[in-house]
Amino acid sequence: MQPRVTAILVCANGAEFLDRTLDALAAQTRPPEALVVVDVGSTDGSTDELSFGGSAQLARIPAGRPFGEAVAQGERVAPHAAPDESVDEWLWLIGHDNAPAPTALAELLAAVEIAPSVAVAGPKVMVAQEPTRIREFGESMTRFGRSTVLVADELDQGQHDAHADVLGVGVAGMLVRRSVWTALGGFDPGLPHVDAALDFCVRARLAGHRVSVVPEARVTSAGGPEDFGRRSVSETRRLRFRRQAQLHRRLVYAPAAVLWLHWLSLVPLAILRSVGRLVAKHPGAVGAEIGAAVAVAFGGGVGRARRTLARNRRVGWAAVEPLRVSLGRVREHRVTARDLELARVEDAAVPRASFLGDGGLWTVLAAAVVTAVLLGPLLGAPALTGGGLLPLSTTVGRLWQNVGYGWHTIGTGFTGPSDPFAAVLAVLGTLTFWSPSTSIVLVMLLAVPLSALGGWFASRRLTTRVWVPVVGATLYALSPSLVTAVMSGHVGAVIAHVLLPWLLLTLLGAHRSWASSAGAALLFAAVLASAPSLIPVLVLTWLASLAFGWRHLLRRIAIPLPAVVLFAPLVITQLRAGTPLGVLADPGVPDATRAPSALQLAIGSPLPDWNGWTTASHAAGFATTVLPIALAVLALPVGATAIGALLGRRWHLAAVALGFALVGYLTAFGATHLALSGVGSTTTIVWPGSGLSVSWFALVVAAVVGLDTLPRLAPGLGLVAAVLTGVTVAPVFAGLYLGTAAISPTTGRVISAYVNAEARTNPDVGTLVLTPQRDGTLGVSLERGQGATLDDQSTVQATAHRLSPDDRRLTTLAANLASRSGFDPREDLRRLGVRFVLLADGPDSRAAEALHDRAAGSIGQDARFTSIGATGTGVLWSYDGRVDRPATGTAAASAAHALFLVVLGVVFGATALLAIPTGPRRRRAVSHVIEADEPATTFDEERE
User: Structural domain tally of the chain?
Assistant: First the structure.
């Protein structure tokens, strides 16, 4: 029979390509007998001026309809052969960008003429912009339905011309027998974007027909089927199209017995794959995975496609099994392509210092040895106390119970948000789950060596000189703000100082990888949770990174998201309470901090003791008036090196660093003017050391840049700067031996062994703690169980301007107990759940001692209290009257707590998965061709 070909040309805003395609059709050595142009709602006028007559005609369908529907419309209007004509009708599917070579149709017809069982033939599809490069040549799929192109993105040298039998071909230039098209129902409407041609070819195979590629026939294409008629397609949308097509075909091809199992697994599998996408650093694919699964699960169309497949199926899946590709071949192809891409974009290696060979390891070890000597009394301690420290809760469950929004037992109890720092403490305590308080001890012991480690790697990023990172690490590890924070118990400031270099490194690498971006997001949240006073600085840093890295905006713009989620409940609560600045309050135990002067801050001292030299100079008999001059001289080398960097070739980097040093200093200066947290009858300032840490780090960065560009005197200047910095912090670093340190080791017992024993059977037992203050006032607190812990602390309570009714009842009770009066405390003791009264030891002052003696006499003479005696923390009495069980919050508070933990888990879990460093395993480059493991044997009689 003579072949009769109808070319169906689909056009969707194809003015750029249509004329060339029409010219190519007219130039065919074997032209088609008929032409149907189907316009899919074009708005560019591409088909307005076309004239049709004779065997050519135009059909129109609304915009947005898929390619398969356009072909179906063209087939319906195409003329049929007369009943008495002995012809073999074929449809030639062409897109507006598919310009065929002059002999394309002739070669396709020649191939199907010598192989009558071939019902579908496909040309070699070439890149329109580069006609010598193959865009697509044959298609196949894995056992699980993943579609793949057998040959793609290769220079055409005839290396694949021996291939003929394939599972599928692309839609561009496909030649299909019209009777087969009609019998199979055309393309599946459930595959509107991709894989429609592959699915049609699979159904043709299962109906007993062959599918073949014809390498001699060539057709160009400007893009894949998902690009047809669209100006651009995002990578996320492209992934969704392909995943949706794969899932749809999986349900269509699945045996009826397991169809329900495939359907039930769609959404759970999408969630698991989303986790994998995050680990693989493809966060944009998460929405594509879930969206595709939901669309297939509830979109319909599967039943119709399954009925069409069953109606035409003549052979089993075993007939097409040899034409499938293995997952190993697909994986190998993907890894090879990724390696080639990495090879194209990878930066040339820059020689930098080696951590093991150029002093990095020795610097960290030296810092660890110095710390072990100077903090020797803390070695082996189960917990720390003093300054801003208390032991942590004794169980990991209790730590996480204090995270988020819910009921808080501190004081008289309240429902509200916890400090974001509670999440940091929960993570640390979980790491040492057998003894959560040990994690705080380790943080203090490892702060200096870990700062040296971070300082070394940050400095290494800024210089190619191998010795400069050692100086940078030493300067950063010996920061006055860090050493003072360790000795004063400001653990949040210590953690922030340790993390700052790593935050800088991840921010610098955020434009290159999602791992760095996610790592920066986690560190951003951790630093702010540990030192909220740095919110203005870090927000400014983030905005600067957006401004300088606007080309990679997507990877940087979401960096604050985890911090926003973590801080949201606290911010809302403080705004509603009328104390918005309370968000900046230091987490932990409120500790009375005296404000340093502007000059002392400039020297780097966060306390008005000149980095501990005030006490040391008194002991040595030196006049304190020389301290400002002496410490300025000690700080001069660091400042001079940092400022000198402005004279070098990298002056712009030094200028940015010095700008941030000024911002850090202003942050510290502003902190000294913010008195937010209550301590006894007064308020205390925000800890200025965190701002000084930023300022010092920026100065170190500028100094490293200066040392990298200065002449030969740089090594000597770096050594002098490091030594003099060590001298600057020597008195405060030796505080545990000089008796000036605020922290001390403890057994972890907060109140007394007697109360601890009672708390084991009654975890809600209340202890009223009375603490005489230096000025003669009385500090009052109500502690539950074994006593207050660091994770119990709340800036909401510490910054509150008003007392709650229970707090007023508590202060009235304490005032009357501390003085002889006719007040009957039984009702208040009962309602507050007070079982013990502890009169803590006060400071060394006459007013405090007088108050202590008066309170001891008053309580001791009250017959309602039984004296237990002196403990390590003060004098203890018990109350044997009836007390109520304290409130533990409402069901709504418990639900809010659980919900917030879930939200935190999702946000931080997804970010952590993105932050996990992963990378492809390098493999030897292999061919891009994915071939079937064996040739198909379905039609052996036609193979030569």
Answer: 3
